[in-house]
């Protein structure tokens, strides 16, 4: 990676630290918004958040966006790719991509994908949790 690319990755991480968490209007008042706090653009005619008055949460604006060269990349600088089966690893470059194993895949297939990806030199961002047998024995021992 070039030094300029690494500089942009560092700049993005610094921007992410400064970026506020964008939550919808009245999330602090209504219990139904606290369960799933996600962004909704305020559109009311008298909405103080839309008017960007002092004391109200910030609104999403283009100025909060990160550098375009590193937008959507993993913090390591690799392009993330979601993989559902072993055949999807074909045609991918291990030097430029990082693998995410799909959440809808079962444990047995996750282990297969992980082993195939590791043998081909891919980095896996979410390796499967393999349950190890306990050393103390089973129930009732």
From TrEMBL:
| SUPFAM superfamilies referenced in this protein's UniProt entry, alphabetically | Ribosomal protein L32e (SSF52042)
Instruction: Write out the GO MF terms.
Output: structural constituent of ribosome
Task: Write down the superkingdom of origin.
Answer: Archaea
What the entry lists under SMART domains is as follows: Ribosomal_L32e (SM01393)
Biological process, per Gene Ontology: translation
Q: Which UniProt keywords apply?
A: Ribonucleoprotein, Ribosomal protein
Q: Which GO terms describe its cellular component?
A: cytosolic large ribosomal subunit
Keyword Ribonucleoprotein found: yes
**PANTHER family named in the record:** 60S RIBOSOMAL PROTEIN L32 AND DNA-DIRECTED RNA POLYMERASE II, SUBUNIT N, RIBOSOMAL PROTEIN L32
Q: Family membership, please give it.
A: Belongs to the eukaryotic ribosomal protein eL32 family.
Protein's name in the database: Large ribosomal subunit protein eL32
């Amino acid at each position: 990676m070039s030094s300029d690319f690494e500089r942009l990755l560092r700049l993005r991480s610094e921007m992410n630290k400064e970026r506020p968490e964008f939550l919808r209007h009245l999330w602090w008042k209504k219990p139904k918004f606290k369960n799933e706090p996600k962004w909704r653009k305020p559109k009311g005619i008298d909405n103080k958040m839309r008017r960007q008055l002092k004391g109200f949460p910030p609104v999403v604006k283009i100025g909060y966006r990160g550098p375009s060269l590193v937008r959507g990349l993993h913090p390591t600088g690799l392009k993330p790719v979601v993989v559902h089966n072993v055949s999807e690893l074909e045609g991918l470059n291990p030097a430029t991509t990082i693998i995410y194993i799909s959440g809808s895949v079962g444990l047995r297939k996750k282990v297969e994908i992980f082993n195939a990806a590791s043998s081909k030199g891919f980095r896996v961002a979410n390796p499967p949790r393999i349950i190890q047998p306990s050393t103390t024995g089973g129930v009732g021992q």
